[in-house]
């Protein structure tokens, strides 16, 4: 396979299963975002791919070459981390040149004075300077080449780190929260820059982030990880609209997806707090998940008490509690929607096609009945 292939990788730290049989392919030119709660194993996976941590089990290959046993320096994998790791005493130009100098110059040639007397030195230096220039150009750093990292903003430093990563034409790019030290506006701008660079460089990119909007907007596919396991790897649209596991459904989306406990009776009819819902699935306890933007205020439906509001500018979040079960619900309304009073009885409806049903193990199950996709479910 052309690209990065992670096959059945496991890693334990004592009792902690940091990675449990993780397999993930990132094709050449593909951008995969790895998301998951703190401590789920994202950094451990990145470190194993980079070669700075070893796996207990499994294989890593790049362009069909097994690199599991290779040292980090032999892997042609570039890494960018949140703390840039620039050398403070070197200029931008010298920082970007470091990986090339390490590869192309001998230890003697890297010495400030002695290196110059070696034959072929100036050609090698000129080639390095040309590559550094191209990489700096790609990131808009041309005017900053003689500055030291201390004279740069956070965003500029991150661009130097990116320039240093692309200068050696890596087969794979690993980025671990590269934007987390930047302020909100700069993050959004730098997102686009990273995606542009990725398109130009064309390497397989694995990108770790805490920020799901970053993952959904930047990636070709999103990989959701929890407790050392990969739960789902899909397009951003499928991760959001078609989660196969309730942990994926509740992790992705802000505000969080609403979850209602329900029960499918022996005939498969689903009841919410004893009320028939008109939906059908295999008998047994189920969870119904509905995104806040898919709930509507109606004259009948799920009976709730209004709790309060959050005005977000482009929408209004209504907080409510289920009348019987007291489960918390959030409804996204138009910003100008009439606001019920706190404590007021309201009813919520939804379209059948917007309900995701999960079994007692949290696995997605199909609705059994062939209800019309646009049928409004207002309960009996
Ligand atoms: P975060 O988003 O907070 O950076 P993460 O998803 O990157 O978290 P990891 O750093 O990969 O998570 O850690 C996964 C699990 O392995 C955690 O429970 C962590 O405490 C544990 N762990 C990681 N490195 C070590 C280590 N060197 N020794 C012991 N336990 C470790």
Please tell me about this protein's structure.
This protein has 380 residues and is α+β, with helices and mostly antiparallel strands. It is built from 8 helices and 22 strands. Strands 6-7-8-3-9-10 form a 6-stranded mixed sheet, sandwiched between helices. α2 (92-104) crosses α3 and α2 packs parallel to α4. It is elongated, with a radius of gyration of 26 Å. The model has no long low-confidence stretch (mean pLDDT 89). It binds adenosine-5'-triphosphate. Adenosine-5'-triphosphate binds at residues 13, 16, 18, 36, 38-44.
Q: What's the total number of strands?
A: 22
* CA gyration radius, whole angstroms: 26 Å
**Which structural class do the helices and strands define?**
alpha+beta
User: What order do the strands of the largest sheet run in, or round the barrel if closed?
Assistant: 6-7-8-3-9-10
Q: Count of DSSP helices? A: 8
Strand content: 25-35%
How would a textbook summarize the main sheet?
A: 6 strands, mixed
Tell the overall outline: elongated
SSE blueprint:
Elements: E1 3-13, E2 16-27, E3 31-35, H1 42-50, E4 57-62, E5 65-66, E6 77-81, H2 92-104, H3 121-138, H4 154-166, E7 172-176, H5 184-201, E8 204-208, H6 212-218, E9 221-226, E10 229-234, H7 236-241, H8 246-251, E11 258-264, E12 269-272, E13 275-280, E14 284-290, E15 296-298, E16 302-311, E17 316-322, E18 328-333, E19 345-351, E20 356-358, E21 364-365, E22 376-377
Parallel strand pairs: 3-8, 3-9, 6-7, 7-8
Antiparallel strand pairs: 1-2, 1-4, 4-5, 9-10, 11-12, 11-14, 12-13, 14-20, 15-19, 16-17, 16-19, 17-18, 19-22, 20-21
Helix pairs in contact: 2-3, 2-4, 3-4, 4-5
């Amino acid at each position: 396979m052309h690209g990065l292939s992670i096959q059945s990788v496991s890693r334990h730290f004592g009792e902690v299963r940091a990675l449990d049989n993780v397999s993930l392919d990132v094709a050449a030119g593909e951008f995969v975002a790895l998301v998951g709660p703190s401590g789920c194993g994202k950094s451990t996976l990145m470190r194993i791919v980079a070669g700075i941590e070893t796996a207990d089990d499994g294989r890593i290959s790049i362009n069909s070459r097994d690199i599991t046993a290779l040292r980090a320096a032999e892997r042609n994998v570039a890494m960018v981390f949140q703390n840039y790791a620039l050398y403070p005493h070197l200029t931008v130009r010298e920082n970007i040149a470091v990986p090339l100098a390490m590869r192309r110059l001998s230890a003697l040639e890297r010495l400030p004075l002695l290196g110059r007397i070696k034959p072929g030195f100036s050609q090698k230096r000129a080639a390095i300077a040309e590559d550094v220039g191209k990489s700096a150009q790609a990131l808009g750093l041309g005017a900053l080449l003689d500055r030291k990292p201390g004279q740069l903003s956070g965003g500029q430093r991150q661009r130097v780190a990116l320039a240093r990563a692309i200068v050696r034409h890596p087969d794979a790019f690993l980025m671990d929260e590269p934007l987390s030290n930047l302020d909100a506006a700069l993050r959004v701008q730098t997102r686009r820059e990273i995606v542009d660079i990725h398109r130009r460089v064309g390497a397989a990119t694995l990108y770790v982030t805490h920020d799901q909007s970053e993952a959904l907007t930047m990636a070709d596919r999103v990989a959701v990880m929890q407790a050392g396991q990969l739960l789902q790897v899909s397009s951003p649209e499928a991760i959001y609209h078609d989660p196969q596991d309730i942990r994926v459904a509740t992790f992705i989306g802000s505000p969080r997806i609403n979850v209602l406990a329900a029960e499918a009776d022996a005939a498969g009819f689903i009841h919410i707090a004893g009320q028939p819902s008109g939906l059908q699935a295999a008998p047994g306890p189920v969870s119904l998940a509905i995104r806040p933007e898919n709930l509507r205020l109606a004259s009948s439906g799920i009976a709730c008490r209004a709790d309060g509001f959050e005005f977000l500018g482009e929408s209004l979040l209504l907080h409510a509690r289920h009348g019987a079960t007291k489960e918390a619900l959030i409804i996204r309304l138009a910003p100008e929607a009439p606001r019920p009073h706190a404590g007021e009885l309201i009813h919520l409806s939804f379209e059948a096609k917007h309900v995701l049903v999960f079994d007692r193990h949290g696995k997605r199950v199909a609705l059994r009945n062939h209800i019309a996709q646009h049928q409004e479910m207002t309960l009996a």
